[in-house]
Amino acid sequence: MKAVVYKGNGQVTLEERPMPVLQDERDAIIQVTLTTICSSDIHIKHGAVPRAVPGTILGHEFVGKVVETGKAVKKVKPGDRVAVNVETFCGECFFCKRGFVNNCTDVHGGWALGCRIDGGQAEYVRIPYADNGLTVIPDNVTEEQALFNGDILSTGYWAAKIGELHPADTVAVIGAGPTGLCTMMCARLYTPAKIIAIDTDEYRLALAKEKGIADITLVPGRDRIEEAVLQASGGRGADTVFEVAGGKDTFQTAWKIARPNAVVVIVAMYEEPQMLPLPDMYGKNLVFKTGGVDGSYCQEIMDLTACGKLDAGFLITHRCRLDAIMEAYDIFENKKDHVIKYAVRVGADD
Ligand SMILES: [Zn+2]
Ligand SMILES: [Zn+2]
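Above: inputs. Below: predicted complex with zinc ion.
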């Protein structure tokens, strides 16, 4: 079968690999039908994910069809259309029992797919703990609507959940990339008064506004960010700040635009250490929550998608087939052509 393989040293190639087989009675084999490229794949390519193992098939955001299940698998059966959780978790350890599945102590617990074990930029993939990692896609949800269920939408949903949002709050989201847009969408579920989106990319901000998920858009360099946030929040600052950009100075912006006693959720994956200048923020009494999604809400997200309350399908700006995925990598990595997300079709069309 064809698969995208991380070779180490900044190299990713499309090559032939053997078909996956069941290794445990809790595994399932999935025929991938739609997959995508995530910025985490680009982080792996750049060597910024130390735990990523060279030789691994990339891809942790995809949907497909169950073709085979181990005999302990109960929730899914061959033929089911499924969305896949980015995280692998046993469901039984100390952390899993408390919903902290990102910290599952299983040998492959946490983010393993497409990082430490073969992922879904391929024709077929083995999913460990299939009952935990797979969510059945209802008939009225399309593959494109379900594609982001287990990764960026899970991240946005989890971030909004830990953001301690209240109705009529002022929410600031730094970063209007795919995960930033998902975070805005999920924060909307909590009926904030306004969402302020901050990004250097005016095209993405315009999209956020057009889709009704951002009310105010700010561009560093064009706008005075701190002043504009104060003005939009009765002089207080944002009630909750989501830092989803991971840029050079975006962490500093995050705590500066937060009001005293605000929650600052750090969703971004940084490539460098960040400064926490405690003397400068003394008296602001901030609460910081730091990232690494707990993908515990895939079913809730699927239910919200099925009833029309969440729809991330608009993030798909580009489509191609698996044969053309290396060109898609180039466009996605270099943010060409206003790309937000790719939908990469695998196998025959439906
Ligand atoms: Zn990802
Ligand atoms: Zn566990």
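The radius of gyration is 20 Å.
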